[in-house]
């Protein structure tokens, strides 16, 4: 991504070098984000989830880009989906990732 800015990570869960990174751009009091995190629980140990709070000063870039779009997801640093978890798309990306590792 041209001119990409590294996000300030809010929290990171179960970091493992053999798992892909799924980044969730979020903020407090975001019901769609909470719903999305519930859906992600159906994918245990499939990825490392990093949450980025777009409202922190360090994440001004992401706030400007995504303030009306959250939740937004990046898979391995690339935009994947927004508003809701597309289970089919996420499953496809995970399958591709793990197939390439074999």
- How many domains is the backbone divided into? 1
CATH A-level architecture: 3-Layer(aba) Sandwich
The main β sheet shows up as: 5 strands, mixed
Strand content: 15-25%
Q: Label the overall shape.
A: globular
Pfam family, one: Glrx-like
InterPro entries: Glutaredoxin-like (IPR008554), Glutaredoxin-like_YDR286C (IPR052565), Thioredoxin-like_sf (IPR036249)
Keywords: Electron transport, Transport
Family: Belongs to the glutaredoxin family.
What does this molecule look like?
The protein has 102 residues and is an alpha+beta fold. It has one domain (11-101): Glutaredoxin (3-Layer(aba) Sandwich). The chain has helices spanning 31-40, 60-66, 87-101, and strands at residues 11-12, 21-26, 48-53, 72-75, 78-82. The chain has a 5-stranded mixed beta sheet with strand order 1-3-2-4-5, covered by helices on one side. The longest helix is centred in the last third of the chain and has 15 residues, at 87-101.
Short précis:
The chain is of the alpha+beta class.
């Amino acid at each position: 991504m041209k001119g990409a800015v590294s996000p300030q990570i809010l929290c990171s869960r179960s970091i493992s070098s053999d798992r892909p990174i799924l980044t969730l751009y979020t903020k407090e009091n975001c019901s769609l984000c909470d719903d999305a995190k519930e859906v992600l629980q159906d994918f245990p140990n499939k990825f490392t989830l990093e949450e980025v709070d777009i409202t922190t000063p360090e994440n001004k870039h992401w706030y400007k880009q995504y303030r009306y779009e959250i939740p937004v997801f990046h898979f391995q640093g690339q935009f994947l989906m927004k508003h809701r978890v597309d289970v089919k798309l996420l499953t496809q990306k995970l399958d591709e990732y793990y197939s390439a590792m074999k």
